[in-house]
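Entry for magnesium ion complex. Fields follow.
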Amino acid sequence: MRIGIGYDIHRFGHEPPLVLGGVEIPDAPRLEGHSDGDALLHAVADAVLGAAAVGDIGVHFPDDDPRWKDADSALILSGALRLAREQRRLRPVNADVNVVAERPRLAEYRDAIRARLAGLLELPLEAVGVKARTAEGLGPVGRGEAIEVHAAVLME
Ligand code: MG
């Protein structure tokens, strides 16, 4: 068994939709980023790469590579899973994710995000946790300028 942790933070842009965990949230602005800005999938991909000890998302999916411009971050997560499988023969066992966001309210999207993430990780729903909290008004996340995501993924 090996564990990996991942972290990401993205600033809000201006135009909807927000894409988080591969789920479109139409009433919130998208996150800025070279790809689709999906900080949740980026944090999970980094946790997968970390568990496998094969570098990080910046090494494998560089943000100056035109291939990843506006890319669906599900492709980044799939690529990370492929690296872990091919180089270390590792597959996910479970994943836990913390989303820190002052806006939008994520409660109504949590089940959809969990289901999408479980699908991408090829895990049963009960092996994927998605928690959401605010930053209590503190810092850039608390001011509603950004979303921050922490992830842990266990692999075997
Ligand atoms: Mg990112």
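NOTE: Residues 8, 10, 33, 39, 42 surround magnesium ion (CB under 6 Å).
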